[in-house]
Amino acid sequence: MVYKLCAFTQFPTIHFYSTIRISVVNVDTRYKMPAASFGLTQLPGTGDCGIKDVWNHNLHEEFQIIRQVVQKYHWVAMDTEFPGVVARPIGEFRSTADYQYQLLRCNVDLLRIIQLGLTFMDENGKTPPGYTTWQFNFKFNLQEDMYAQDSIDLLQNSGLQFRKHEEDGIEPLEFAELLMSSGLVLMDNIKWLSFHSGYDFGYLLKLLTDQNLPTDENDFFESLRLYFPTVYDVKYLMKLCKNLKGGLQEVADQLELRRVGPQHQAGSDSHLTGMAFFKIKEIFFDDNIESSSGHLYGLGAPFSVNVNNFQDNGENGNSS
User: Fold this and answer.
1) Is residue 173's pLDDT more than 70?
2) Overall average pLDDT of the 246-267 stretch
3) Which biological processes are named by the entry's GO terms (predicted)?
4) 46-84+112-292 has which fold?
């Protein structure tokens, strides 16, 4: 299989599977690492919205709190922000879902997560008093890490502080160690809520395993079931609901839900995802939603065909 790498001005250290050949295309100005441009207008903080920003300096302290919260609030809504799509696989694929997984895999392997939001709820969708959402901000360097420029522009306009990500961002390995011992993963009683979340769980699995994603999609889902035994993808659930369509914000508008915090930040998006799930569950599913667990929108399609070229699904670092 050949991977076409799109648009950046220098290569970080990259490890590829030995069976994969790399095809580099001409530089596209939409995908680059500018010399030094960190300035942005900071939007209002998230603290007054019940969203706790977590950086390297308060990581251990906040995980101590999370270990207590998760004992009562077993429903965890999740969202990530990441640096877009910079590579596309070319060749023959078994299905559109196979292409989408290979697209996901090569980009998750190449790139670094920027932000993770976790919102805690009980079985009725109620959130804890005080802080309801923890927003983890990872180390990311605009001069060294690969990214798609349009995704970074979107995140900067949403208020992400990339200078602070460079100086006080969380180290992925340290986060993974704390997540493993938090009571959130490998637990049958924890229900994970998400929206169009193939990339989200891809980045989480990469963090937890400290490895590239599996070559085969079936192995990816096997790892997913191991670390996250119960997963609901709201975008997948929408296929089973009449008249629901669009991205996260559009669905929230249709359901008359009010966003808390800035759009296109992982904390706010995770909170809105959790609210959307419980609203959809109430309106469309009653108590019959368990059969929809384990499905991720756009992945795992049952059909099989041989094709040479697919278009990706347009996911570029946010689906909200």
Assistant:
1) yes
2) 95
3) regulation of translation; regulatory ncRNA-mediated gene silencing
4) Nucleotidyltransferase; domain 5 (3.30.420)
